[in-house]
């Protein structure tokens, strides 16, 4: 998804950065580990659902917040504030899930958190589509988050396994996207270093 940018094509501050791939890869790993847990845990309890979902969203939120300066944004500027809001929403959702255990609270809170963060990622992608190397990835990740958020409420009555399955499915799709993005960013950063 990430379109390789050469320094001539990139806007100021968005040329391939040597360490931008690291938080992107960590985000992918967190998503894929959560997705694997949801696949291989045959009969999760409500507590497992709350803790697994909470840890996943908290870790993702923290990684999004850590990637704000590495993405070329400052926390005080418009794009930085917007992107930081997505991280704060995900982290807050992650903290709330273990505190308010149950199928209904998980469905509502996870859906709202993923949906709001997804909308923010889509906005970041749209606003920066011509100027940032991760814009397309934010668009895709945001759409995945919104899709997951829309699907979760319909499965509240089916219990923890179904809720975790949908959340984990979205995490796996997003995780694969972010792995590809991280690998592209790493390749571009290495290519930029090799060039004289």
Overview of this protein structure:
It is globular, with a radius of gyration of 17 Å. It has 196 residues and is mainly alpha-helical. The longest helix has 35 residues, at 160-194. The chain has six helices and no strands. α1 runs antiparallel to α2, α3 runs antiparallel to α4 (103-127) and α4 (103-127) packs antiparallel against α5.
Quickly list its features:
196 residues, mainly alpha, 73% helix, 0% strand, globular, disordered N terminus
Short description:
The protein has six helices and no strands. By secondary structure, it is mainly α.
- List low-pLDDT spans: 2-16
Let me know the average pLDDT: 81
| Helix share bin | over 70%
**Spatial separation of the terminal alpha carbons:** 27 Å
Characterize the largest beta sheet: strand count, sense, and whether it forms a barrel: none
Strand content: under 5%
Q: How would you describe the oligomerization state of the chains in this entry?
A: single chain
Radius of gyration computed on alpha carbons: 17 Å
How many helical elements? 6
Shape: globular
Total E-strand runs: 0
Structural class: mainly alpha
